[in-house]
Design a protein that fits this description.
This protein is an alpha/beta fold and 170 residues long. It has one domain: 3-Layer(aba) Sandwich (Glutaredoxin). The chain is built from 5 helices and 7 strands. A 5-stranded mixed β-sheet has the order 5-4-3-6-7. The protein has a two-stranded antiparallel sheet with strand order 1-2.
């Protein structure tokens, strides 16, 4: 399993670009905020709905090529680990509801939990995000375990180790 996670993360990293080195308002060990936006039907998505699971929260936008390349990679990661242990929430950051809905309908085989952060309020005010792609990895206790802004080849091994380390503690 570790090898497959490493391979998926390597593929992702080789197709990504760097964003500013900004980690936002959250520190390691902080409780994750509950509000994560709304799904395509307007239903609120809350981090508390995923208690006991590891969460990967990824802030993305349709105009961001590395963000779009990330979605199928983290979808495969969730499929590999299983939704019973890993929940991936892809939070669309600051785009209109129309663009969000159009993208989700066209996403096809991607089975992530997609969330919409209208005007980027949750991302900027609650999470302190200033650049995307931005990933927050949350342990099964609901605490921030790792934060990544931007992606690069040198982070692949760290991401695999972080997720595998959290999975081993469950």
């Amino acid at each position: 399993m570790r090898l497959l996670i490493s391979i998926l993360l390597f593929v992702f990293a080789t197709n990504a670009v760097y964003a500013e080195d900004i980690v936002g308002n959250l520190n390691i060990g902080d409780a994750i905020p509950d509000a994560l936006g709304s799904d395509i039907d307007g239903t609120k998505i809350n981090s508390s709905d995923y208690q006991g699971k590891i969460m990967v929260i990824s802030f993305w936008a349709t105009w961001c090529p590395p963000c779009r390349r990330e979605l199928p990679i983290i979808d495969n990661l969730q499929r590999l680990v299983g939704k019973d242990r890993l929940a991936v929430i892809a939070v669309n950051f600051g785009e209109s509801k129309r663009i969000f809905r159009k993208f989700i309908r066209a996403a096809g085989d991607v089975h992530l939990t997609f969330s919409h952060d209208n005007k980027g309020k949750i991302g900027t005010k609650t999470f302190g995000i200033k650049a995307i792609p931005h990933m927050i990895i949350v342990d099964h206790m609901g605490k921030v375990a790792h934060v990544h802004s931007g992606y690069g080849e040198e982070t692949v091994d760290n991401l695999a180790n972080e997720i595998n380390g959290l999975l081993s503690k469950m």
